[in-house]
Amino acid sequence: MAGSAGGDRHRSRPGLVRAHLEAIATAARRLLEPPMTMPIPDYGDARVPGYRGVVLFDYDKCIGCSLCAQICPARAIKMYRVPGDKRLRPGYNVGRCIFCGLCTDICPTDALSESIVHDRVYDDVPSMDMDPVDWAVWSRRVLEEERKPGRPLLRARVDPERGLVYERVDAEGGPVAEEKGEER
Amino acid sequence: MTRLLLPGMEGRVLGERGGLRVVELYIGAQHPASGHMRLIVYLDGDMIVRVDPDIGYVHRTVEKLAETREYVRVISLVERMTIIDACNVTLPYVEAVERLLGVEAPPRARYLRTILCEINRVSSHLYGLGLGGIFLNHSTMYMWAFGDREVFVHLASLLTGSRLTHTYPVFGGVRRDLPQSFRDEFEKAKRYMLRRLREYDKVFFNNPVIRGRLEGVGVLPREKAVALGATGPNLRASGVRYDARMTGYAAYRDLGFEPVVGREGDALERVWVRLREIEASLELVERALRELPDGPFIDERYTRAVPPAVRHWLEKGRLKLPGGYVRLKTRPGEALGRGEMGRGEITYYLVSDGGMKPYRLRVVTPSARNVVLFDALARGHTLMDLPAVYGSIDYFPPEADR
User: Fold this and answer.
1) ipTM of the predicted structure?
2) Under CATH, what is the fold of the domain A55-147?
3) Residue A59 near chain B (CB below 8 Å)
4) Which residues of chain B does A106 touch, with a Cβ-Cβ cutoff of 8 Å?
């Protein structure tokens, strides 16, 4: 325990045969327990509440203050000139984003928000670099996917016996009673 | 000189001594047990006469990059040195800048920082134990430690919203308040981990095979540990009662922190210290949760300037920053930040010329200090003992190379 003089490791040392048997028995007991991993891709990860994923942009709420581009540590957000718009608007490069969420913290109008998604697939590298309009359209699509997930969702929970266990939840995070989910 | 090809390694014969070949052996940088580095090992027969750690493969010029960024943007930069120990690596930097800014985090923020630091320490130690296990071909320990680390990564993501790179402490406070479910989840995690530690003892620590590989290997006597400047669990395993947390930063003074100290200084003792530190960290988090003071989680100086339209986030326990936060100017001067990471003491030396960016940020990471141990500890042992020595030092190349 903390603060003890230490070096008491020899006192509790069991005999050679017993130690071998204990090691094998301890490992063997674990064989019977279900795995602790999440069954991806059959299930999606529902994430914890407040998870920081890709940043979503609401064009209508933006006032073009450029604070997000200034605070972005990875320079993932840059200001663009949009035709027909007097102010500069932020564009977003997902490939550079480190999901720190500082842009959403400093946004004075809630135009930026975090989604719970970070593991999306992109066709090519240029499609990861979005101008303000692309970003706003893409954000709406991500939000829709978030509301209607393509696969059943599981949420991790700490269990005192088994470490992490997963339970079925719906898109809002409410529990879903299903035998498959309980089993996991 | 004859080239020598061994599985995963390359070497050359340097000559002969007493009928035995003297071999220079290159382990890494692609070898699975070398990490992002190369070890050049000189062998006399099977005995190690010298180890040259060839470091710098993951050098990312963190110190220089820090001079080109505003203070707040440097937080997530320095985090990249050790993403598995993110709060411990950023906190001393944040405290150093706070000293120059003249702000102090409110008590609740200091406690929350401590909570995340200790959770990070547990996951960092589990990471080290897992790698130490696989270095000795103990796959069970590797799988178990990495699986159980997931519990603490989950706890950290509950608190911060991010699994590894939390960017949690910011100047004047922290970025999220404690979520409601956290206490309950931690209570379960603690019970689980304490039970698992007893199983670790049986399957790994008291396992005669592991004892045979670690006991008496790479002994670091107390005087030598001090002379070489070893730090962290490696230093404490040699019987030195020193831990940067004893300086009482964050909430450690209020919590009455006491370090875990070993005696023997061999590889087994270093593992023992880590295992007992996991227990101590769990204890600390529990105490911090019990004594967690009420109040704001960020200094009022910054919340006052937050626009009214987004103030509702602060009541929901999420940080909103004022616009001026990007362009914070510190007073000219120097500040030192010290903190204890999972692997030892990290020091930041920050020089400011009064601008918006650091004039100079010097970082000394624990792994950079512990790299001398490779040579000091492995000499005189057989090549087979080298993975045991490496695993017990818990060396992390990205942290040392910066």
Assistant:
1) 0.84
2) Alpha-Beta Plaits (3.30.70)
3) no
4) 320-323, 325-326
